[in-house]
């Protein structure tokens, strides 16, 4: 069947008038035959079994029964009428009930004629009843082509109240298959189909809508899920390849003096295997003539800083400048300080530019950037201002993916002739399958190994009632010279209340930990940047032992002497936030602790989050749990939801299929980049169609 047929507007299908077409478009986004075919069932009802009324149990979900209606009556009740039919088989009697559509039902139902009914049963007034049953005359039922595994299609309130029931959709689907003679063009190549032992397209479509049995249904679903994920991956991988062939980058051909000197003489520790591997991946990119576009994932404390630093040295060695952009002032300062430390024996010039840089030093920075005297610029959003012009920016590193949008990233691109190489670093591990779908067009490096000798942070969950014990523990730690974070939630919707909690908490801490024995810092979002900085620095320098804060300290802050993280109202934090906060401790040589404080009232999800935190410190494992709890849309925010809008596959459950699909897509484009081998024509055509009719599958962007 050619693609023209599939693009036929839905109103041309027999049984779909203008009204129904309107509803289908509005409610389900079905514009064409193709859209209808791609409306996949949410689930299937097993209609291979028939029940007798005497066998019914109160726990039955949905049942199918053969019997006759012996009597129909209208029952007046407080809110409107209900229509009740007495339904019997040879074993007993039950009731069928309707709350609407009485007239139609009364006129059409036949008394004393065998029917097959299907639906959920209730136990009511000492009798089973079935509200709004699906009904079919036994005679028609026996002749029907409908399969025993009955699909249940996605629907809406509006559709069912307008009479477009599941049954109607099913009938339309039959009509469509009848008109198409079930001859759908193959959309995958022969070698692919045979190597994965897939059903043909036609068989798969038929069996997903009219499954002959469980086995064929499973194979049909596999084939269609594979296909859906395969074409997304093909699109993403292709975008990556096109990017590489079209977007030129400055090739950093040599590994020069800065890099070599640092590597030979000044490396503060032995690099981990993962750090070496990732550096090699970055070096390969930088050495090629294409612009690097790489995401570097690594859990908190995995050692991204030094990898980023050595990448910058490669830029410098090739006569280019580099910059690093961080989401907050505090983080920029920390990055700046650690770079100064790392580079102290190298002859390079590093500057810091943030919102609080004075006008005069700002002017100086602008000048020295343009004349090339500054080698590396660190800073916040201030880097994106128009006045900031580099002489020759070769590498831009962005810390913390989430906080910068794509538009901001590309602003950096326009600073000079060629776009600089871009390395995005994120400490929020993203499950591999999700990363493949969302960042599938980027190259991804993962530091999946922590530096040696790191002690796992001991994590416990304590109820508020045990607060005094917790305070005693904190005093013990402080007496050993350690420092402590106490973090309060700050959620936008309840900001005023949260500030009150924070201030109340602060006051009780100050009471419990009195001066001069104890010094307490406080940092929160309503403070002026300079005050925040001042307080933060007192803590960093060890002048205060306790830091009371909202989540402003979540990202990146590095105080190795801090060994305890107390998280108040921990049930209100998301998993990735909890994990980030915990990452603030465990940075020194001492055993560190994370104490999750909650009330006794916990939701099931909150309990799962706390248990996960106590059980594991592996950021990727935590991210997997987070994905299951929150779903992909919530996890990544709405910006990426298009990619996740799948028709049949499920990014959480079908991760294995996704991996296979991606590897096939990569292999295919490697062997036949233009898809010009005749055996790949079906793929080329399908791909072109998908791009052309972008409304078909809305993830093709
Ligand atoms: P993150 O990935 O969170 O940015 P950092 O780069 O800040 O991690 O590294 C965390 C700590 O681990 C730092 O104190 C750093 O000096 C140290 N570190 C990094 N790599 C190694 C290594 N290979 N061996 C020992 N310590 C390391
Ligand atoms: Mg870091």
UniProtKB/TrEMBL annotation:
Keywords assigned: ATP-binding, DNA damage, DNA recombination, DNA repair, DNA-binding, Helicase, Hydrolase, Isomerase, Nucleotide-binding
Keyword DNA-binding: yes
Enzyme class: isomerase
GO biological process per UniProt: DNA recombination; DNA repair
Superkingdom of the organism of origin: Bacteria
EC number: 5.6.2.4
Function field: Plays a critical role in recombination and DNA repair. Helps process Holliday junction intermediates to mature products by catalyzing branch migration. Has replication fork regression activity, unwinds stalled or blocked replication forks to make a HJ that can be resolved. Has a DNA unwinding activity characteristic of a DNA helicase with 3'-5' polarity.
Protein name, per record: ATP-dependent DNA helicase RecG
Enzymatic reactions: Couples ATP hydrolysis with the unwinding of duplex DNA by translocating in the 3'-5' direction; ATP + H2O = ADP + phosphate + H(+)
